[in-house]
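Ticket opened by: R.M.
Priority: normal
Category: complex prediction / small molecule

The reporter submitted a protein together with alpha-D-glucopyranose and asked that the result be attached to this ticket for the collaborator who will pick it up next week. Submitted input follows.
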Amino acid sequence: MRNWLNGVALLGAALTITASGAQAATISISCGAVGLELQLCQEGAEAWAEATGNQVNVISTPNSATERLALYQQILAANSADIDVFQIDVIWPGILANHFIDLTEHVDQDAIDQHFEAIVQNNTVDDRLVAMPWFTDAGILYYRTDLLEKYGKEPPTTWQELTEVAREIQEGERAEGNDRMLGFVFQAKAYEGLTCDALEWIDSFGGGTIVDGEGAITINNENAVEALELAASWIGDIAPEGVLNYAEEESRGVFQSGNAVFMRNWPYAWALGNAPDSPITGKIGVSQLPKGGEDGKPTGVLGGWQLAVSKYSQNAELAVDLVRHLTSPDEQKRRAIEGSYNPTIAALYQDEEVLEATPFFGELYDTFTNAVARPSRVTGEKYNQVSSEFFNAVHSVLSDKTDAASSLEALEGRLDRLSRGGRW
Ligand code: GLC
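Result attached by the on-call engineer:
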């Protein structure tokens, strides 16, 4: 009897041993589902599972970064082991650091050093590397090359010029029968995406980044007011009222169906817009975002996603191995070519196949490496509250509930109370 029991136990154990001799397991990974994200994550994770004899469970999460964070906070606050690997936003290391393991103890220094140093720094909290860089982003301007050519226009270099060109082409196309044509689409729903868009407008007018690098609250200034007044004027003119409820995918839907002249979005929209079944394939141009007037500068906000391993994971070593695979040069190259997701490895910006698929990775290299960060480092754990206050204040200006000057003044007061005496 005893032998028989031992035999069963041994058999059970044998079934969970992989080729390399390690225990096989199912690793759960949470992935975004914007554009091709989920498909690419699934393919990458399954390739790892097959090669290592393990299994993966890919969990799709809400598209809105704001909702995704709320979900993660619930799961992590419960110390749940349900998700081993978390896809986290570039603005979250300070908020979630305590729930993740220190990857410097598990990943070779060489593998870490191949990534952009600024992102590694961003993901390092109290000397702990809490996430590996996976892909980076910056806000960019998409335009219709065929329409600009038809109307004899160059891509606009200032927001004021964009406003004029968008209006002229919108009116011209509507007069010719496409009454659905829109001048400009972007992200103006009250969520993290609006923080990105509005910070781009404001910083490009010289109005700063809400809270500066030293922690001073800078948002209540004339340049910021001017930027928001111009943006508010777009609603109902070159942008539809509906934009107040647009995130990335709603904007892409309109642009990709052929009904917008300009779009502000992240690089992922390139691969989908140029897919063979896209109505605007081959008619898309990309440039840096416009400046806030001749004295302004173009600002693209830094975005991007990292992979972190939960400290509640029961298979942390395997989870790290999956992260190592997904963040590797080969996998980042595949994702760049198939989905126009920016690598976090500088060398891939010189790779011929990557540049052939997505030429603007080379042309706009400086836009990506000089992208402007949201104030997440300096506000740390409170970043999400700062951002929520900001996007709500901006949303109320865009929806004509408050004027820009009073909204920013009130915002300054709220941020002041959130901080310790006006500083972080
Ligand atoms: C993109 C960016 C991310 C940002 C989000 C806002 O996913 O990569 O950093 O927070 O958009 O919608």
